[in-house]
Specification:
Elements lengths: L2 E9 L16 E8 L8 E4 L3 E5 L4 E4 L3 E4 L4 H14 L4
Parallel strand pairs: 1-6
Antiparallel strand pairs: 1-2, 2-3, 4-5, 5-6
């Protein structure tokens, strides 16, 4: 199964919806280095097709065409994940 390293999701800029659309309904792609992909050399930076489902904590993403294993994200996106985890942590 193809694996993405140094990846991060991006909102598709040409999304033809209005600015009030909730973020969870916007169209995303993932940009990152791909490994074990039959059509790309290892380390090639790709932009996936639209993400249909993704779980960064479990380490997978499903696009229109492919299921990916998510390796290590970019440092910027990892900080974002860490901040969200702290925000959503339950008090003990």
């Amino acid at each position: 199964m193809p694996r993405l390293e140094n990846w991060e999701p991006r909102i598709v800029i040409d999304d033809p919806v209005n600015e009030y659309r909730p973020p969870e309904t916007k169209l995303y792609v993932i940009i990152g280095g791909v490994y074990d992909h039959p059509a790309h050399s290892d380390g090639t930076v790709i932009t996936t097709t639209y993400v249909r489902q993704m779980n960064a904590l479990e380490g997978w993403a499903l696009t229109r065409n492919t299921r990916y294993i998510l390796g290590k994200p970019t440092e910027v996106y990892q900080r974002f994940i860490d901040e969200q985890m702290k925000k959503n942590a339950r008090p003990q």
